[in-house]
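Hi team,

Below is the intake form for Cyclic lactone autoinducer peptide from Paenibacillus sepulcri. Please confirm the fields before the structure is written into the shared record.

FORM ID: S-0412
PROTEIN: Cyclic lactone autoinducer peptide
ORGANISM: Paenibacillus sepulcri
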Amino acid sequence: MKKRAYKLLGAIIVSAASLFVFTGCLFYLYNPPIPEELRRKGV
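The structure came back. Fields below:
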């Protein structure tokens, strides 16, 4: 039972990490221009 729980936990961690990497790659590849209204002043 413990072994199965560890496998499930590992799968969840790997899934979350790959999701973060995938969304980061998408944002890096498709970098939309930010409108002037949404930009913070002074940055």
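SUMMARY LINE: The mean pLDDT is 86.

Thanks, M.
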